User: Fold this.
Amino acid sequence: MPCIEACGLRKAFGTTIALDGIDLRVEEGRILGLIGPNGAGKTTALNAILGLTPYQGELKVLGRDPWRERDQLMRDVCFMADIAVLPRWLRVSQALDYVAGVHPRFDRAKAEGFLAKTAIKRTGKVRELSKGMVTQLHLALVMAIDAKLLVLDEPTLGLDILYRKQFYDSLLNDYFDRSRTILVTTHQVEEIQNVLTDLMFIDRGRIVLSCNMEEFESRYAEVMVNPDRLAAARAFRPMHERQLLGRSILLFDRVSRDQLTGLGEVRTPSIADLFVAVMGNQAAPPRMNDARGNHQRHTYQGVSR
Amino acid sequence: MNSPSNAMPEAFGSQLDPPAALSPTQPFYWSMRRELWEYRSIYLAPLAIAGVILLGSAFTLVPLAHTMRTAMALDPSQQRQALARPFDVAAGLIMGAAFIVSIFYSLDALYGERRDRSILFWKSLPVSDLTTVLSKASIPLLVLPAVAFAITVVTESIMLFLNSLVLLASGLSVATLWARLELYTTMLMLLYHLVTIHMLWYAPLYAWLLLISAWARRAPFLWAVLPPFAIGIFEKIAFHSSHFLAFLEYRFSGGSEAVNNMQGNFPMDPGMQLTPSKFLATPGLWMGLALAAIFLVAAARLRRYRTPL
Assistant:
């Protein structure tokens, strides 16, 4: 059984189409990155998967209809929408008590173990914690839940690079095993390049690229072309071309590396470079490294209603 | 904002324990607990009022001996009025505080979680919208009346204890005071009043406020109060009738006509007769409870669609 299966998933807010017929299949044990510019429909897609919003089309998460069977589904699905959602008045001990009280799959000892490795005090309130510590607390709660699907919507927004790296390290080392599925959206794509097993680009409610990371590495090649070979390189029809320090960097799709090696230095592109190449051909300049919280907020207001 | 010691949770055993079974009432119980964590005014406001009352009643202790001697000269029916007044005021103030907290709590309960965006955290846990709404409704319907009752009993016991000490020190009999106050009876009547009026008769009022707090995008207080009045005024101007305003007035004060035989008196006057069967036979009670149920189910349904503001 696939973890998530969608067919013709649609969602419109008035005349704005947030999801325009999405087909999606995520197998168990994958880590899928859903990447897209602001307002592309990422949050709407996640909200549909989490049963937070009604939709048209077919959607099954762990074999259930997320809108109709939300209460049962949430025993097996966990999500961190944004770091701000832990209420500020909550004490750390109360958070542990509450989740232990309502979640049948919560392992309190595990969460306490995670927290023991941080500087978070049990008696502290969320409002007294730094942004990074709130994320640590939320992650400790989430990782102690034995869920089948974990959905992360901009989980590291507004965190500095140390916390961001730690976040994904602990997620991979302490949480992920081959039976769990993780779905993550973020603008900080460089940091999850080595975390993901699958990649999906979404723009204006449509999936514009979908591949797994092995495919990604074999399919796409970036060449820093020697100036004298530029015409020869362009003959292979690059999907994107950019200038860097006076050199041309060309991105190729499905051109064998043997053919490219003579043209210059060949390497696997970063997700960010591919994203710019794919989106650059379509729309306004995407924001790739946006770390400020107000943009996420804007996405919520603009798209998720 | 961080130091190297703030390491993210690190390596931990990955074997999973079998999930422990939860009883279905667990999520409800913990949801109620969380309301008490968030809205500490539920018990702090009545406690603060009780503190003020105790402080104020200390001043009645000074002329107490004189009050007692004056009261002794009156006939027994008037004695109660003279002696029990501070006790009735105390009970009334604590009840009033609890009622005001009920109003403001109900208006904020389903609005505040959207305003601070914590609704997404609560929704990430396996607690249904109905459980959440019912746990929130139980605060004005069960918790606050219980809190008001418990605090009143404790406050009046302390007052009685202090009064008795002063009377004994003045060489007066405490028997008259105890006999006239009938504290045990009045506390039972207080309980009766809280159950009939504050819980049952006002149930649709709280449910209405909860519904508005789930619905409104801003200013839930105005949305809860103005439209009903607008309807009443519209009816008055357009049709020269006031059925809707009468309906509203009945929803506020109609219950007290049925619960005892002495309207207008303080609800804990031990001289009055309770008429629970008359109260239970009032159609308005059952219509109100049905209305409350409809409002609560609607609020739970609305919450399904709700995202942070």
About this structure: Residues 4-204 of chain A form a domain with the Rossmann fold fold (CATH 3.40.50.300).
